[in-house]
């Protein structure tokens, strides 16, 4: 079964710092990859997704992620974070067949200090 | 965009009672919905996949008789926590495959269940 690993459980940054959150998945077949954000007290929102094509995906709010198939990775990046980026970030993967259930990583809690 | 409405947002119930949580797709038809459970400061754990008109598919370790799922229409799936106990207290979230591109998912706002 597929699984998702997020290496950073808790990240603390100052505003304007660059961000990179790691995500690795384990599945040998074709996958679809997602990054979701959960702001305090709110529901999950989609940041970006990758299905095929250009492995560098740009999402909302200045976030981007790069799919590196050889490394089974889909790291999330943002060149300059803001205080409003404080949230929990989840990487998720689904396979291209079956019921397409979405499997989540453990999440990374990001705190951005002014 | 696609919207999933989940109700109630918060419920407190007595131990031994049952609680029903509703998940509705408001502007699209969802043949497949997913139910997740999220413990504090942890990730979303998939509980089951709900398919309209058929039995739900439960993940390993999830008690089918305790977490009853019904997906009677293309816009509504319900999760009933039967004979709730304090250890069932958690945040329950539903998700539906939406029509925003291939493989898109939309999430409900979640239900915080507290069993006392």
What does this molecule look like?
The complex is a heterodimer of chains A (114) and B (116). With 114 residues, chain A is an all-beta fold. In chain A, strands 2, 5, 6, 10, 11 and 12 form a 6-stranded mixed sheet that branches. The radius of gyration of chain A is 14 Å and the shape is globular. The mean pLDDT of chain A is 91. Chain B is mainly β and 116 residues long. Helices cover 0% and strands 53% of the residues of chain B. In chain B, strands 2, 4, 5, 6, 9, 10 and 11 form a 7-stranded mixed sheet that branches. In chain B, strands 1-3-8-7 form a 4-stranded antiparallel sheet, with no helix packed on it. In chain B, a hairpin with a 2-residue loop joins strand 7 and strand 8. Chain B starts with a strand and ends with a strand. The chains are: A mainly beta (114), B mainly beta (116). At the A-B interface, strand 5, strand 6 and strand 11 of A face strand 4, strand 5 and strand 9 of B.
Task: Name some characteristics of this structure.
heterodimer, A: 114 residues, mainly beta, six-stranded mixed β-sheet, four-stranded antiparallel β-sheet, B: 116 residues, seven-stranded mixed β-sheet, 11 strands, 0% helix, 53% strand, globular
Strand content of chain B: over 45%
Structural class of chain A: mainly beta
Query: What best-fitting shape of chain A do the alpha-carbon axes yield?
Result: globular
Give the tally of β-strands of chain A: 12
The tally of beta strands of chain B, per DSSP, is: 11
Mean pLDDT of chain A: 91
The poorly predicted ranges of chain A are none
Largest sheet of chain A: 6 strands, mixed
| Secondary-structure element order of chain B, N to C | EEEEEEEEEEE
Q: How big is the Rg of chain A?
A: 14 Å
